[in-house]
């Protein structure tokens, strides 16, 4: 059974949760409505897109994903239905769809709002129409392209990988934009040192699990998303090292940068 998911900027106690859930329950009774994520930093489409990109394929094909992040329509933007990989996304054309999909979608429809101006009503009505079997093309007019926001990618410069933290999970683990593929392209069968934030904090080992290192030690591992994740066994690495979204992660060949002190 297809479901409707919600990814929003709203706190769990915000009235908008009840408003859109109530509308959906009225318009499509019996359809599961699932909170995929809430409390996204306001207007932070990078944060929201990371979560949706890495979660939506776990839902059944045909699911409808409502995105309420920077969702009020502004001049030059529109409310859209975007179809890709058997899923439907409803949101605002603010650059988030490109970050989620990183590929050409199967279909883009500009939603016809009629006389309605409230995006929650528009999104709920559109989602209900889709789960009831209406085609996206019946709900608006086709577009050929999306507004684009370029994703922040790790780079390679003279054999050094330069990346950054793009997500911090509930345990404080810092997830970077350095993929397993780019790491092994540069450092397979080579020595390396991974620095986080500064050359004071580093490791020269890729771990398979947090327990591979002693409690209190810095660990680097590739997580289930195949992204390099920095953690401390038994502690919140982001709090201890003042790591934030955008903090630097650099992988050098030993000797290129002289570390000042190890983290214990």
CATH A-level architecture of the largest domain: 3-Layer(aba) Sandwich
CATH superfamily of the largest domain: S-adenosyl-l-methionine hydroxide adenosyltransferase, N-terminal
> What is the fold named in CATH at topology level of the largest domain?
Rossmann fold
Give the overall pLDDT as a whole number: 92
The shape, in one word, is elongated
Distance separating the two termini: 50 Å
Residue runs with pLDDT of under 50 for 5 or more positions: 258-264
Percentage of residues in helical conformation: 10-25%
Secondary-structure element sequence? EHEHEEEHEHEEEEHEEEEHE
Strand pairing plus helix content: what structural class? Answer: alpha+beta
Q: What kind of sheet is the major sheet? A: 8 strands, antiparallel
Q: Which CATH class of the largest domain applies here?
A: Alpha Beta
Number of strands: 15
Strand content: 25-35%
The overall number of domains is 2
Spatial extent as radius of gyration: 21 Å
